[in-house]
């Protein structure tokens, strides 16, 4: 089967493209000029040079494809104006849906985010929880999801997936958490009682595939999440175990860090500089994320395989192998060794 994966040069899309190739699909990805595509090419992925914001480029990439996995998105950053989030997360989705309709694509899997629910008020929640996006990323992801839902209601074969907290080997977003815990510099912000729900990237990609293949998935919306959610104090302990460190106790209040983040944004954003600290990054410490995952299990048979302990150990092993953490990875029975970086 010939499939298009948008966002293939990113962490999640790249892993999905690789796993689809491993199961025998012919995989195409849309990549901007100058993007790093060496690993994709080595894996046998066909590269179409273009931009998700261009309707013609998306149409060209989708030609001949039976399925589209729409993973491309502009993630949390404080250096981009709001209009860029809209162009990528909403306009890009419209371009994908247009191409799929025009070319008669069999199925579109649209990757949204559990962030559309904002800070959840009950633990855990399901797909029916109210929408409460808290920033421009979540707002535009919700707007893109609504576009996908409208296309589904018009008869297009669309499935919406809402991943929770994606991580795994290759991810750089959580590297700072691992490195500061290893070095002893990490300090909890707030009480640490806030809960977070992670999803190991391989599990997530299997969930995407289930959305693309299960006959009952069309028209559905599914939260794809890991086995369990954890309070941040427990997350820190699991990270510490994965890097062979002892987590330091103690915390600092939220308000001074939030004030510092506001100041950093005010100074850096007008110059297009990524602030060292910004408000959206603090969501990790102040907003609960906990989901049942029941609908995906019941309707499309999605069952995550990795516990957080297993996933963090594999992630840490990759960080060590790449030289991103100092020293050597601790030996864990459930974390296969990763070849050292050449």
User: So what's the overall shape?
Assistant: globular
Radius of gyration: 20 Å
CATH class category label of one domain: Alpha Beta
Arrangement of strands in the largest sheet = 3-2-1-4-5-6-11
Counting helices, strands and paired strands, the structural category is alpha/beta
How can the largest sheet be summarized? Answer: 7 strands, parallel
CATH architecture of one domain: 3-Layer(aba) Sandwich
Residue share in helices?
40-55%
CATH fold name of one domain: Rossmann fold
Q: What is the straight-line distance between the termini?
A: 34 Å
Low-confidence stretches: none
Total number of beta strands: 13
What's the order of the H and E elements? EHEHEHEHEHEEHEEEHEEHEHHHH
How much of the sequence is in beta strands?
5-15%
**Average pLDDT metric:** 92
Instruction: State the CATH superfamily name of one domain.
Output: NAD(P)-binding Rossmann-like Domain
SS summary, helix count: 12
How is the secondary structure organized here?
Layout: E1 2-6, H1 11-22, E2 26-31, H2 38-42, E3 46-49, H3 55-62, E4 67-70, H4 82-103, E5 107-111, H5 136-153, E6 158-163, E7 166-167, H6 175-183, E8 188-189, E9 195-197, E10 199-200, H7 201-213, E11 221-224, E12 229-231, H8 232-243, E13 251-252, H9 254-268, H10 283-286, H11 294-300, H12 308-321
């Amino acid at each position: 089967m010939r499939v298009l994966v948008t966002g293939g040069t990113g962490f999640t899309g790249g892993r999905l493209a690789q796993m689809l190739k491993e199961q025998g699909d012919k995989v195409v990805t849309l990549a901007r000029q100058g993007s790093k595509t060496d690993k994709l090419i080595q894996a046998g992925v066909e590269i179409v040079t273009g931009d998700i914001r261009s309707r013609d480029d998306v149409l060209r990439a989708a030609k001949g494809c039976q399925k589209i996995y729409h993973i491309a998105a502009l993630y949390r950053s404080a250096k981009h104006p709001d209009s860029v989030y809209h162009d990528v997360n909403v306009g890009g989705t419209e371009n994908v849906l247009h191409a799929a309709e025009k070319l008669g694509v069999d199925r579109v899997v649209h990757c949204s985010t559990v962030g559309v629910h904002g800070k959840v008020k009950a633990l855990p929640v399901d797909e029916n929880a109210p929408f409460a996006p808290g920033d421009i990323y979540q707002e535009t992801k919700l707007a893109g999801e609504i576009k996908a839902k409208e296309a589904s209601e018009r008869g297009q074969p669309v499935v919406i997936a809402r991943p929770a907290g994606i991580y795994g080997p290759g991810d750089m977003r959580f590297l700072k958490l691992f490195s500061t815990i290893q070095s002893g510099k990490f300090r909890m912000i707030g009480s640490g009682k806030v809960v977070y729900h992670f999803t190991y990237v391989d599990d997530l990609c299997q969930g995407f595939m289930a959305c693309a293949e299960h006959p009952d998935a069309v028209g559905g919306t599914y939260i794809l999440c890991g086995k369990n959610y954890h309070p941040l104090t427990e997350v820190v302990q699991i990270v510490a175990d994965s890097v062979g460190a002892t987590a330091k106790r103690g915390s600092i209040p939220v308000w001074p860090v939030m004030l510092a983040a506001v100041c950093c944004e005010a100074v850096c954003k007008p110059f297009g500089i990524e602030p060292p600290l910004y408000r959206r990054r603090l969501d990790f410490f102040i907003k609960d994320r906990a989901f049942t995952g029941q609908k995906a299990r019941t309707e499309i048979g999605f069952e995550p395989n990795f516990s957080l302990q297993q996933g963090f150990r594999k992630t840490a092993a990759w960080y060590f192998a790449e030289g991103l953490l100092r020293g050597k990875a601790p030996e864990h029975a459930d974390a296969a060794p990763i070849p050292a970086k050449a």
